[in-house]
Write a structure and sequence with these properties.
The chain is mostly helical. It has a domain at about 30-80. Helices cover about 65% and strands about 0% of the residues. It contains four helices and no strands. It is elongated and about 55 Å long.
Length: about 80
C-alpha cells in the first residue's frame, strides 16, 4: 500500500522531483553503502597518514551517502506518485 494519496493534489510531486526520482531509481541501492564504506576507509587511511583535516572531511561523507541510499530505497519501494 502506498503512503501517498494520488487523489490529493496537495501531495503530488513536482516535475523536477519526478525526474530526479526516475533517475535515482536506476541506481543500485548497495552503491551508496559501498560509497559510505569507501569514505570511511579513505578517512581511516588519511588518519593513519597524519592528514587529520582531510580525514575528518572525507569521514563525514558516510552519513550523506547512507541517507542518499535510504532515499533511493524509498523511491524504489514507494514510487513517486
Amino acid at each position: 500500500m502506498k503512503s501517498s494519496d494520488s487523489s490529493n493534489p496537495e501531495h503530488k510531486e513536482g516535475p523536477v522531483a519526478k525526474a530526479i526520482e526516475k533517475q535515482t531509481a536506476k541506481l543500485p541501492s548497495d552503491l551508496f553503502l559501498w560509497a559510505a564504506l569507501a569514505s570511511m576507509g579513505v578517512s581511516a587511511y588519511l588518519q593513519a597518514t597524519s592528514d587529520r583535516k582531510t580525514s575528518l572531511f572525507v569521514g563525514q561523507w558516510a552519513a550523506p551517502f547512507l541517507l542518499l541510499g535510504l532515499y533511493n530505497k524509498l523511491v524504489k519501494v514507494e514510487g513517486s506518485d
